[in-house]
């Protein structure tokens, strides 16, 4: 009798926990799983908000993607941006981490400051950099006053310059993050390794290549993967900085999807492109992670 | 940033600030020279933030004549102009952002941690399957789920509402992040603690709230800090889920009104300073937990 009442109480009490857990899972299903399936479904239709129903059109949207020049341009730019930004942000991150890896208070303050670009929202980052980079902006103001350039440089006005400028701004945002990740990794390297290699006569360049770079490999995996995914999702910074212009030169695939859905009202096609971006992100994230994981070594 | 937690820590490591002393090496560069170099490099790196801060307190004339100079004639007029705008951009935006962040995070923490506790006591295969499903949430670009999410909210009559925005935050990729952080911590809690409480007659809900939650406080700190920052800085979801008519969070408000017309430097920097000062102040106050949370996941 007693064990029965205990059993009942257990079930009742576990029910509360089960209910909360189920709520969480249900919300996840409603706002992630179902939307992905809905996107997949509408990628096979001609859905748009101006007509009431939608027709199943098979793979027509995916065939359109093959000949969509604007899509190809955005994918190419997004991939180039992801690659360039990832390389730059990780090189800067390691360099800053090595520079700041001292325990004195002054260095700790500098570490705190270096992370700031990650804290400020992409919208603010976009506006502040825009103020700096526009043709009559603060950078040209300084450059012309110092007589470093004769004519103001149009950092955001010509396609190539704008592509470069967006890259610099995004790399700037991510460098704050990579610095902190690499700093943490550096602090986990046993100092004895450096002492021992010094005794063996290693130069500091050899130490950097043979010890530092190898032992921060797990941080590299995290930092590279996150840099890539961040650029693939990127929306706010580019939207504020260039709105994808000039002449769509800085339009990312993520922006193109939003434009197709909300400006062109092509829901079906936007969904097909979104499926493409999802596949691309998954392939890149999984392959890069497994490639980098294999290069990690254990202590 | 979210995938930082795919390999969660067994326990939080004390990171940077409290971390191990860095290695000693025969100094090849004198200490002062190195420090000066470090200061110059980092100052150059954060110069856009420096420009925003100093120019928010300078009269327009001084900004144009030398943007990089410190405020020699300090003024609060840029800030008061920003705060006395007829559209109350900052007051309304900050209020709406606070509401969205607080409600979302207050829901995400209990849901995420109870869910994590529940599945961390399940069979491994079920757990692995559910965690894999949740891991996808960290990787899915928000643009992929945006349109269907709006459809679903419209069906429920929640489109263009804060409740709709908050629910989509709670069910979205943020939940995945919370679960990954919590599961990592909860795996490290010995089974005996849970068993002992069960024998004493405590039910699952009680064990979770009274015993587990206090033990995973560092995880809660990490989850609360990062989710607050990300939801605060989120742009895409509020822009399209709330739409232009429903009042704005601080990010969409800035975008929709500052982008509209020309304003002078002083006004712009004043607005940017006030819009950015809350998360930055939060970061400076809690930087230890911030960096511990960030690095815990990346240096297993």
From TrEMBL, chain A:
Species per Swiss-Prot/TrEMBL record = Rugosimonospora africana
GO terms for CC?
plasma membrane
Q: Name one GO biological process term.
A: transmembrane transport
Q: What is the lineage of its organism?
A: Bacteria, Bacillati, Actinomycetota, Actinomycetes, Micromonosporales
UniProt keyword Cytoplasm, yes or no: no
Locate the ABC transmembrane type-1 domain: which residues? 75-290
Keyword Membrane attributed: yes
Tell me one Pfam family matched here.
Answer: BPD_transp_1
Q: Where in the cell is it found?
A: Cell membrane
Q: What is this protein called?
A: Sugar ABC transporter permease
From TrEMBL, chain B:
Q: Give start and end of each ABC transmembrane type-1 domain.
A: 94-286
The entry's cellular-component GO terms read:
plasma membrane
| Bias (Low complexity) ranges | 8-20
The organism is Rugosimonospora africana
Q: Which domain of life is it from?
A: Bacteria
Q: Where is this region: Disordered?
A: 1-26
Family statement drawn from the similarity comment of this UniProt entry: Belongs to the binding-protein-dependent transport system permease family.
Which residue windows are transmembrane per the record? Answer: 35-57, 98-119, 131-156, 162-186, 207-232, 265-285
CDD domains xref list: TM_PBP2
User: Any keyword Membrane?
Assistant: yes
User: What's the protein called, per UniProt?
Assistant: Sugar ABC transporter permease
Task: Indicate where this protein resides in the cell.
Answer: Cell membrane
UniProt KW keywords: Cell membrane, Membrane, Transmembrane, Transmembrane helix, Transport
- Where's it mainly located? membrane
Matching SUPFAM superfamilies, A to Z? MetI-like
């Amino acid at each position: 009798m007693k064990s029965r009442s205990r059993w009942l109480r257990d079930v009742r009490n576990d029910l509360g926990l089960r209910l909360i857990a189920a709520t969480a899972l249900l919300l996840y299903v409603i706002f992630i799983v179902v939307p992905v399936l809905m996107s997949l479904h509408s990628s096979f239709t001609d859905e748009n908000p101006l007509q009431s129903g939608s027709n199943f059109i098979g793979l027509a949207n995916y065939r359109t993607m093959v000949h969509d020049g604007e899509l190809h341009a955005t994918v190419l730019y997004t991939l180039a941006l992801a690659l360039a930004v990832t390389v730059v942000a990780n090189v800067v991150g390691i360099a800053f981490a090595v520079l700041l890896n001292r325990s004195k208070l002054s260095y700790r303050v500098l570490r705190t400051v270096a992370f700031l670009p990650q804290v400020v929202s992409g919208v603010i980052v976009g506006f502040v950099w825009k103020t700096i980079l526009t043709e009559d902006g603060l950078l040209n103001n300084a450059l012309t006053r110092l007589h470093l350039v004769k004519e103001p440089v149009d950092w955001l006005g010509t396609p190539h310059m704008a592509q470069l400028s967006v890259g610099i701004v995004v790399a700037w945002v991510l460098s704050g993050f990579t610095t902190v990740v690499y700093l943490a990794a550096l602090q986990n390297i046993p100092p004895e390794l450096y002492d021992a290699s010094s005794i063996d006569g290693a130069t500091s360049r050899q130490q950097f290549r043979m010890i530092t770079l190898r032992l921060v490999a797990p941080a590299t995996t995290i930092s590279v993967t996150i840099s890539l995914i961040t650029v693939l999702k990127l929306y706010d910074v580019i939207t504020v900085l260039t709105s994808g212009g000039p002449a769509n030169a800085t339009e990312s695939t993520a922006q193109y999807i939003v434009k197709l859905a909300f400006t062109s009202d092509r829901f079906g096609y936007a969904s097909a492109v979104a499926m493409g971006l999802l596949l691309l992100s998954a392939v890149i994230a999984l392959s890069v992670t497994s490639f980098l994981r294999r290069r990690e070594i254990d202590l | 940033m979210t995938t930082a937690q795919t390999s969660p820590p067994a326990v939080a490591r004390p990171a940077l600030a409290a971390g191990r002393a860095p290695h000693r090496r025969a100094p090849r560069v004198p200490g002062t020279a190195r420090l000066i170099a470090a200061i110059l490099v980092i100052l150059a790196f954060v110069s856009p933030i420096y420009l925003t801060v100093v120019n928010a307190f300078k009269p327009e004339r001084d900004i144009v004549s030398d943007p990089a100079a410190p405020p020699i004639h300090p003024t609060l007029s840029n800030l008061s102009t920003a705060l006395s705008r007829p559209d109350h951009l900052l007051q309304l935006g900050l209020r709406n952002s606070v509401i969205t962040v607080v409600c979302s995070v207050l829901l995400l923490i209990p849901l995420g941690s109870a869910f994590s506790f529940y599945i961390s006591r399940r069979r491994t295969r079920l757990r692995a399957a559910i965690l894999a499903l949740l891991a996808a949430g960290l990787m899915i670009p928000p643009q992929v789920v945006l349109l269907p999410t709006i459809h679903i909210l419209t069906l429920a009559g929640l489109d263009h509402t804060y409740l709709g925005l908050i629910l989509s935050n709670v069910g979205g990729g943020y939940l995945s992040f919370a679960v990954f952080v919590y599961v990592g911590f909860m795996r490290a809690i010995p089974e005996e603690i849970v068993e002992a409480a069960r024998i004493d007659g405590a039910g699952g809900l009680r064990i979770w709230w009274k015993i587990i939650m206090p033990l995973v406080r560092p995880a809660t700190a990490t989850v609360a800090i990062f989710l607050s920052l990300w939801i605060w800085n989120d742009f895409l979801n509020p822009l399209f889920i709330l739409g232009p008519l429903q009042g704005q969070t601080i990010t969409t408000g800035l975008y929709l009104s500052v982008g509209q017309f020309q304003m002078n430097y002083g006004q712009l920097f004043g607005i940017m300073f006030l819009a950015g000062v809350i998360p930055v102040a939060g970061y400076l106050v809690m930087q230890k937990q911030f960096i511990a949370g960030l690095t815990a996941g990346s240096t297993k």
